[in-house]
Structure formats: structure tokens, C-alpha cells
Design a protein that fits this description.
Four Helix Bundle (Hemerythrin (Met), subunit A); mainly alpha
């Protein structure tokens, strides 16, 4: 990957308006200048990582569509059935794709791993909701899901800032989709 190359990364942009976003941790940047060889090696890692983004984004889109459709249910039984039949399997597929992304350097792993952790926590909250919700506890149980999803949004914001800084350090432009 050469200087000035753009790598697509639209992960999570579809989440806006759904209160369902995730993030990641920051990486500190050393004051030491990177050698051209180090930069070139990391560009290869970034290219490999970025190549998997369309798959992850596609699985995220499937999850979000299933989640939106399930949320349209006014009947609790129908909501729980939709969670079990479509939402949770789609969320599992998204998280599996996210986990399998090749974060092949220490710097990229430090950025990526908190994102995965945040999605897993949101998954657990949604899974617990699906298992534990009743007519009498819908509001407090749903509030727990929204709290987990808000944590995802905050984590994703940190993730994108850290990813952008990492890409910039290695002379790669982070391209996000709207």
C-alpha cells in the first residue's frame, strides 16, 4: 500500500440513529520517527485489515436491519421470537466477522480489541434481555440494552479516532463511508 492510499472503513456508520454504536481504545504514538521499512510493513497490515471491512460492514447491516425489524414489534412474544430467530444470529455473525479481522500488528490490535469487547458486551446485554424480559420488566431491561448500545457508540468514536491516527502515522488515509 503506497503513500496516500485510501482504505475504506465504514464500520458502524449505519448505526447512527439506532442508538447502537461501538468503539475502541486509543494508542499512544511514540515521538520516535518510524523508518520507511516500519511504515511499509504496517501499510501491508492495514491493507489486509481494511480488505475485510466490506464483509464486516455487510454483516453489521444484516444485524441492524434485523434489530430494526424486531424493534417494530409491539408484542413482547413476537419481539423475543425475532431476537432468537434473526437478531441474535445476525449479531453473532457480525461479531465473528469482527473477531476474524486480521489485526496483524500490536498497534492495530490495541485499537481493534476494545471494539470487539464492546460489541460482545452489547451482545450479552441483548441476549440477557431476550432471555429475561417479561411484561412487568420491559422498561428496566430495555434500558440495560440501551446503556450497552450507548457504550458501543462511545467506544466506536474512540476507535475511529485511534484508527485515523494510526493510519495517518503510517501514511494511509482512512476513508469512511457516510
Amino acid at each position: 500500500m503506497g503513500t496516500g492510499q485510501r482504505c475504506g472503513f465504514g464500520l458502524g456508520r449505519a448505526l447512527a440513529g439506532l442508538a447502537l454504536l461501538l468503539g475502541a481504545g486509543c494508542e499512544s504514538v511514540s515521538d520516535k520517527a518510524l523508518s520507511e521499512e516500519q511504515i511499509a510493513r504496517e501499510q501491508v497490515v492495514i491493507e489486509s485489515y481494511s480488505a475485510r471491512v466490506p464483509e464486516v460492514d455487510g454483516k453489521l447491516k444484516v444485524f441492524l436491519e434485523a434489530w430494526e425489524k424486531a424493534n417494530a414489534n409491539k408484542d413482547l412474544k413476537a419481539l423475543k421470537e425475532a431476537l432468537k430467530a434473526s437478531v441474535m444470529p445476525a449479531f453473532t455473525a457480525h461479531i465473528s466477522a469482527l473477531e476474524s479481522m486480521p489485526a496483524g500488528s500490536e498497534g492495530l490490535r490495541k485499537i481493534h480489541e476494545p471494539l470487539v469487547t464492546a460489541y460482545k458486551a452489547a451482545f450479552k446485554a441483548l441476549e440477557t434481555f431476550g432471555n429475561d424480559v417479561t411484561e412487568t420488566n420491559v422498561e428496566p431491561e430495555y434500558a440495560k440494552v440501551l446503556t450497552a448500545m450507548d457504550a458501543v457508540k462511545k467506544a466506536e468514536e474512540v476507535y475511529f479516532k485511534a484508527l485515523e491516527a494510526h493510519y495517518q502515522l503510517h501514511r494511509v488515509t482512512l476513508k469512511t463511508s457516510p
